[in-house]
Design brief:
Blueprint: H1 3-8, H2 13-28, E1 35-36, E2 45-46, E3 57-65, H3 69-76, H4 82-94, E4 100-110, H5 115-132, E5 135-143, E6 153-164, E7 179-184, H6 193-203, E8 210-211, E9 216-217, H7 218-222, H8 230-240, E10 244-249, H9 254-260, E11 267-272, H10 280-289, E12 304-310, H11 315-324, E13 329-337, E14 349-352, E15 355-363
Parallel strand pairs: 4-5, 11-15
Antiparallel strand pairs: 1-2, 3-6, 4-6, 7-12, 7-13, 8-9, 10-12, 11-13, 14-15
Protein name: Phosphoribosylformylglycinamidine cyclo-ligase
EC number: 6.3.3.1
Catalytic activity: 2-formamido-N(1)-(5-O-phospho-beta-D-ribosyl)acetamidine + ATP = 5-amino-1-(5-phospho-beta-D-ribosyl)imidazole + ADP + phosphate + H(+)
Length: about 375
């Protein structure tokens, strides 16, 4: 097929080249000396010789997308924050095992390449990669006319990290009496947007409408970027060493299910709702839906973006260090082992996502004021 007929089919290769030129500088800013070849190659090259200093290096990998949050970005034509969401969803899963991210690649599928729009998306990815110490070594933009609408797109990414085998974080490190710390989210992050869009549609609310209680339009409020936890959590794991036992990224499934995944079989924990107050966006959405905050606990993070299970003797110092670094952190519960303390009666979530882990439930009522 000639270039002329390819263009007639709806694929503009020149627009793709223009998009690459617009994003080059942002991508290069994520490259250290270990990245070879620059931007535009068929494959990204990463010098792994630095890994020779590890005793038993294990590679950690993760892949994800942003979900239907992209529909809101498309609706209000704002595309510079979706990249932060993508990096948060992908790279922050790697830090759960204690791994340091090395590099990431991205994939954007769209109905039509608008160079400035694609560049905005990739610049957002690159900015977040810089913040997490991740090299953006490659990516792909695919134009799919006839399959996606002219203004439609979706994004996905994959990342690789590294951790010493004897430094892996996980349920096997958890001990009776460990404290569960909650790290505040910046809002909805990137989960539960199908429910969000359903609630607004049923209420007849447009993304350009003013959300008085949120101090912005609905579209702006809902595009608040996902908070990035990798750098502060790696710092805590390094500073407090063996005191950090397991981490959980609160994404799809909510607080209880994601905490249960990183607790050992036979353990249990109760998360005390009274220790924090969910941000206004969660309350306003729940009110619009005519439902309770509790009914959305399996969908939204409700103000907790990450959970850290840590040694009780270091819990206060860890919480203070994270809070001083800009992430409000507080204690929400304690882990108990059935061999030490029998689990109380009641409904607990037992493991999740195929992991037969611990049991978790939320108890009490949410605080009315700010945490």
């Amino acid at each position: 097929m000639s270039s002329r007929t390819y263009a007639e089919a709806g694929v503009d290769t020149a627009a793709g080249d223009r998009a690459v030129e617009l994003m080059k500088s942002a991508v290069r800013a994520t490259h250290g000396p270990e990245v070879l070849g620059g931007v535009g190659g068929f494959a990204g090259l990463f010098d792994a010789s630095a890994l020779l200093g590890y005793r038993r290096p294990l590679l950690a990998s993760s892949t994800d997308g942003v979900g239907t949050k992209v529909a809101i970005a498309q609706a209000i034509d704002k595309h510079d924050t979706i990249g932060h969401d993508l990096v948060g969803m992908v790279v922050d899963d790697i830090v759960v095992v204690g791994a340091k991210p090395l590099f990431m690649t991205d994939y954007i599928a769209c109905g039509k390449v608008f160079p400035e729009r694609i560049a905005d998306i990739v610049r957002g990815i690159a900015e977040a990669c810089e913040l997490t110490g991740t090299a953006l070594v490659g990516g792909e933009t695919a134009e799919h006319p006839g399959l996606l609408g002219v203004d439609d797109y979706d994004v996905a990414g994959a990342a690789t990290g590294i951790v010493e085998a004897d430094r892996i974080l996980g349920s096997e490190r958890v001990q009776d009496g460990d404290v569960v710390l909650a790290l505040a989210s910046s809002g909805l992050h990137s989960n539960g947007y199908s429910l969000v869009r359903h609630i607004l549609a049923k209420a007849g609310i447009g993304y350009g409408d003013r959300a008085v209680d949120l101090g912005a339009t609905w579209g702006e409020a809902l595009l608040t970027p996902t908070r990035l936890y990798t750098t502060p959590l790696l710092g805590i794991a390094e500073k407090f060493d063996s005191a950090v036992h397991s981490l959980s990224h609160v994404t799809g499934g909510g607080i209880a299910a994601n905490l249960a995944r990183v607790l050992p079989l036979g353990s249990w924990a109760e998360v005390d709702r009274s220790t924090w107050s969910p941000a206004p966006v969660f309350r306003v959405l729940s009110d619009l839906a005519g439902s309770t905050l509790e009914s959305s606990e399996g969908t939204w993070n409700l103000g907790i973006g990450f959970l850290a299970v840590v040694d009780a003797s270091s819990a206060t110092a860890i919480a203070e260090a994270l809070t001083a670094g800009g992430i409000d952190t507080w204690q929400v519960g304690t882990v108990r082992l059935d061999a030490v303390a029998a689990r109380p009666a009641g409904d607990f979530e037992q493991g999740a996502k195929g992991v037969d882990g611990g049991a978790v439930r939320l108890v009490g009522a949410y605080a009315d004021g700010a945490n």
